[in-house]
From TrEMBL, chain A:
Its main location: membrane. This is Protein ORM1. Keywords: Membrane, Transmembrane, Transmembrane helix. The chain crosses the membrane at residues 30-50, 56-77, 110-126. Pfam families: ORMDL (PF04061). It is found in: Membrane. It is a multi-pass membrane protein.
TrEMBL record, chain B:
Residues 118-481 form the Aminotransferase class I/classII large domain. Its cofactor is pyridoxal 5'-phosphate. Keywords: Membrane, Pyridoxal phosphate, Transferase, Transmembrane, Transmembrane helix. One of its GO terms (biological process) is sphingosine biosynthetic process. The chain crosses the membrane at residues 16-36. This is serine C-palmitoyltransferase. The keyword Membrane applies. InterPro entries: Aminotrans_II_pyridoxalP_BS, Aminotransferase_I/II_large, AON_synthase_class-II, PyrdxlP-dep_Trfase, PyrdxlP-dep_Trfase_major, PyrdxlP-dep_Trfase_small. One of its GO terms (cellular component) is serine palmitoyltransferase complex. GO terms for molecular function: pyridoxal phosphate binding; serine C-palmitoyltransferase activity. Belongs to the class-II pyridoxal-phosphate-dependent aminotransferase family. It is an enzyme of class 2 (transferase).
Length: 173, 498
C-alpha cells in the first residue's frame, strides 16, 4: 500500500521543467472557482427554484453538478491537452499532476477545502434533511476521496484521456 | 484589482480579477466545446478529425507522433491557425509582402491565394535595418565574396571548412565584444545547443533563468548536467539557489557530500518574450561571490543595446572580463545567420575540438560571414559613414517612442526602455487571434504569442522595432493599434475591463 504513496520530498521549485497544465492555479483561480459556484447557485435558484424545484432540490442540484464537474475534470480525464515535453503525464489525472504528485501541498489543501465548505453550506440550506444529506454526502465522498493521497493512481475501470486514441500509447488497464 | 493609472498589469499576478475571470471563462468555453465536439465525433464518426478520434487497430507502430492528434492542437490551435505560419514574399524590411491565405475547413487546411498584401513589418528581427537597403550597404562586398568563395563552405570548421573570412569575422567579433577570442557557428540555435554540452557535463550544475530560450533549455538538457532554475531576473533568488546547491552538493540528503565540478549561471541579455533587460550587474556579483561561471546569451541585445551596440555589457556597465562566456547571434542585428561564442583563448581552442557544432556541422556560409563582417564594419563606423551610428541611435529612439506612446494609450506594455522588443499583453487566448486578424486587416504584420511559448494566461503581441522604421510608419501603426485596442478592450492600465 505504501508503494503508491506520493509524499516524498517537496516539489523541487528549481526544477526547470514544470507541467504547464497545472502551474497556473493560484489565488485568483480559487476566487473564480467560488465565484462561479455562487453564480451557478444563484442562476439555478432563479431559473429552477421558483418554478420547477423547491429550495432543497436546487441546492442539492448545484452540489451534485459541482461534484460531477469536479470529478470529471480533476480525476476522470487524464493526460495533458497539448503535446508538451514528454508523455509522463499521459496516465495521470489533473489532480495527480498537481505539484508533481506530492500530497497535502497548500494548493491541494485549498482545492479540498472548497468542496467541503460547499457541502456544509448546502447541508445548512437543506436544513439537514436526511434524504438530501445522504445524497450530498455521497457526492462529497465522490469528490473528496480521489483527492486523498491513498487514492493516487487508483482507477475505476476506464478513464478518458486527452489522447487516449493515440495508437502509440498503451491503454491503461 | 485596480484601476489606478500607475499600476501596469505585467503578467498573471497583476491582471485584474475581471481579466482573470474572463480568461478562465474563455478557456472553459473552449475546452467544453472542444470536448463536446470530440465526444460527438467519437460517437458518430462524423468529424474532420475522424482519423485521430476513432480507435484504430494497427498492424505496425506508427512512425509519426500524432502532433495533430493532441486536443490542444485540434480544438484550440486550429481555430487560430491563420495567425501563425504566414508566408512572406519579400525582404523582411520595414515593409513586407504577406501572402494572403484562404482558410478552409475551419483552420485545418490553409492555401495561399497568390495575392500579397504590403504590410508594415512589426514582427521581424530587423533591428538595424540591414534587410531594407542591403544592396547599397553590403551588397558590393557580399557579391565579391560570393565570387571568391562560392555560396557554401562544404565542410566543418574542424575539417576543411575554416575559411579566411571566418577567421576575420572571429577577430572582429572578439574585438567588438571585448574578449580575447571568438568562434563562429553556422546557426544561432545550435550555438547554444552544442556549446553547453561541451562546457558542462554530468557532475556540473547549470543554473539558468526560468524564462530562458528553448535553445538554452535543450542545450542544458543535452549536456547531462543537473539543471536548476532561478526566478526570472532576480539576483536574490539566484543567490538562494546557488547557496542551496553548494551546501547540498550533488548527492541526495543522507549520502556522502559530493561537490559540483563547476557551476555555470546562464542568462540572456534581452528576454525575447518579455522585452526585459537582464539585471546583469547584480547577477554577475552573485556569481563572482560564489565563484560560479557566467554565460550570457546576447542573441537580441548584441548590436541593439549600448551606445555603440556592444550589447548588454555596455548597457549594464559590466566589463566583458567579468563574464566568462559571451554568446550571440548574427540573425537579429546583423542581417545574417549564425552565432558566435567569445571568451578566453583557451576556451575557444577547447571548443574547437569539443563542440559538435564545429566538428560535425558545416561552417557558416562564407557569403553570410562576409555580410556579417560588413555589418560589423558599418556598425563600428569603419566604412567611413555615420550609417552605423545613426542606426544605433534610431533603434533606441524608435523603440522608446513606440513604447511610450503605447503606454500613454493605456496598454499593458512589458519590457525596459531601450529594448527594441515591445511586448503588449493581451491575456486572453481569444484576443490573441482577434488582434492578429485585426492587425492584418489594417496592413500591420505582427507576431502574436500564445501558449505554450508563454503561460496560458499571458497571451501577448510582440512588436519588434527596427531602425528602418520611420517616425511616420510608427505614427501610422500607433493610430491603427489605437483603433484595435478600442475594439478589443486592451487598455488594461486605464480600466479593469481593458
Amino acid at each position: 500500500m505504501f508503494k503508491n504513496m506520493a509524499w516524498s520530498q517537496p516539489p523541487n521549485e528549481d526544477d526547470h521543467y514544470i507541467n504547464k497544465n497545472v502551474n497556473w492555479v493560484g489565488k485568483r483561480f480559487y476566487v473564480f472557482y467560488v465565484f462561479v459556484i455562487f453564480v451557478g447557485a444563484y442562476l439555478a435558484n432563479v431559473v429552477l427554484g421558483t418554478t420547477v424545484l423547491n429550495s432543497f432540490q436546487v441546492w442539492t442540484l448545484v452540489h451534485v453538478i459541482h461534484g460531477i464537474i469536479n470529478f470529471t475534470v480533476m480525476h476522470y480525464v487524464t493526460g495533458v491537452p497539448a503535446d508538451l515535453d514528454n508523455d509522463e503525464f499521459h496516465e495521470l489525472s489533473w489532480w495527480e499532476q498537481l505539484d508533481d504528485g506530492v500530497a497535502w501541498t497548500p494548493m491541494k489543501r485549498n482545492l479540498m477545502i472548497i468542496p467541503v465548505v460547499l457541502f456544509l453550506v448546502v447541508a445548512y440550506f437543506t436544513e439537514y434533511d436526511p434524504m438530501y444529506l445522504a445524497l450530498n454526502l455521497c457526492v462529497l465522498a465522490l469528490v473528496l476521496l480521489p483527492k486523498m493521497p491513498q487514492f493516487y493512481r487508483v482507477r475505476l475501470n476506464s478513464s478518458a484521456s486527452f489522447d487516449e486514441d493515440d495508437p502509440t500509447h498503451p491503454h491503461s488497464s | 484589482m485596480t484601476s489606478s493609472k500607475s499600476h501596469v498589469p505585467q503578467d498573471a499576478e497583476d491582471q485584474s480579477l475581471f481579466t482573470a475571470f474572463t480568461t478562465y471563462m474563455g478557456f472553459i468555453v473552449l475546452f467544453f466545446f472542444g470536448h463536446l465536439r470530440d465526444t460527438f465525433g467519437k460517437l458518430t464518426g462524423r468529424s474532420r478529425f475522424r482519423d485521430e478520434l476513432l480507435v484504430k487497430h494497427v498492424d505496425e507502430a506508427p512512425l509519426l507522433d500524432p502532433q495533430g492528434g493532441a486536443f490542444y492542437v485540434r480544438r484550440l490551435k486550429h481555430r487560430m491557425q491563420d495567425c501563425f505560419f504566414r508566408p512572406i514574399s519579400s525582404r523582411p524590411g520595414a515593409w513586407i509582402d504577406v501572402m494572403e491565405q484562404r482558410v478552409d475547413d475551419n483552420g485545418v487546411r490553409m492555401e495561399t491565394t497568390g495575392e500579397t498584401k504590403r504590410c508594415l513589418n512589426l514582427g521581424s528581427y530587423n533591428y538595424l535595418g540591414f534587410a531594407d537597403d542591403w544592396d547599397s550597404t553590403c551588397g558590393e562586398q557580399v557579391h565579391a565574396a560570393l565570387k571568391i568563395y562560392g555560396p557554401a563552405s562544404c565542410s566543418a570548421q574542424g575539417d576543411a571548412g575554416a575559411m579566411s573570412v571566418h577567421r576575420e569575422l572571429e577577430e572582429v567579433v572578439a574585438n567588438f565584444v571585448g574578449k580575447p577570442a571568438a568562434v563562429v557557428f553556422n546557426m544561432g540555435y545550435n550555438t547554444n545547443q552544442l556549446t553547453l554540452p561541451a562546457i558542462a557535463q554530468a557532475g556540473s550544475l547549470l543554473i539558468s533563468d526560468k524564462l530562458n530560450h528553448t535553445s538554452i533549455v535543450n542545450g542544458c538538457r543535452a549536456s547531462g548536467a543537473k539543471v536548476m532554475a532561478f526566478k526570472h531576473n532576480m539576483a536574490d533568488d539566484l543567490e538562494r539557489v546557488v547557496r542551496k546547491a553548494i551546501i547540498e552538493g550533488r548527492g541526495k540528503p543522507g549520502e556522502v557530500y559530493r561537490p559540483w565540478t563547476k557551476i555555470i549561471v546562464v542568462v540572456e541579455g534581452i528576454y525575447s518574450m518579455e522585452g526585459e533587460v537582464c539585471d546583469l550587474r547584480a547577477i554577475v556579483d552573485v556569481a563572482k561571490k560564489y565563484k560560479c561561471y557566467t554565460y550570457v546569451d546576447e542573441a537580441h541585445s548584441i548590436g541593439a543595446l549600448g551606445k555603440t551596440g556592444r550589447g548588454i555589457c555596455e548597457h549594464a556597465g559590466v566589463h566583458p572580463d567579468e563574464i566568462d562566456i559571451l554568446m550571440g547571434t548574427f540573425t537579429k542585428s546583423f542581417g545574417g545567420m549564425g552565432g558566435y561564442i567569445a571568451g578566453s583563448q583557451e576556451l575557444i581552442d577547447y571548443l574547437r575540438g569539443a563542440s559538435a557544432g564545429l566538428l560535425y556541422s558545416a561552417s557558416l556560409s562564407p557569403v553570410v560571414a562576409e555580410q556579417v563582417l560588413r555589418a560589423f564594419q558599418i556598425i563600428q563606423g569603419e566604412d567611413g559613414t555615420t550609417v552605423g551610428r545613426d542606426r544605433l541611435r534610431a533603434i533606441k529612439d524608435n523603440a522608446n517612442y513606440f513604447r511610450t506612446k503605447l503606454k500613454q494609450m493605456g496598454c499593458s506594455v512589458l519590457g525596459d526602455d531601450d529594448s527594441p522588443i515591445v511586448p503588449m499583453m493581451l491575456f486572453h487566448s481569444t484576443k490573441i487571434a482577434a488582434f492578429s486578424r485585426e492587425a492584418l486587416d489594417r496592413d500591420l504584420a505582427v507576431v502574436v504569442v500564445g501558449a505554450p511559448a508563454v503561460p496560458i494566461y499571458g497571451g501577448r503581441v510582440r512588436f519588434c522595432i527596427s531602425a528602418a522604421h520611420t517616425k511616420e510608419d510608427l505614427r501610422m501603426a500607433l493610430k491603427k493599434i489605437s483603433e484595435i485596442t478600442k475594439v478589443l478592450n486592451l487598455r488594461y492600465t486605464r480600466s479593469i475591463f481593458g
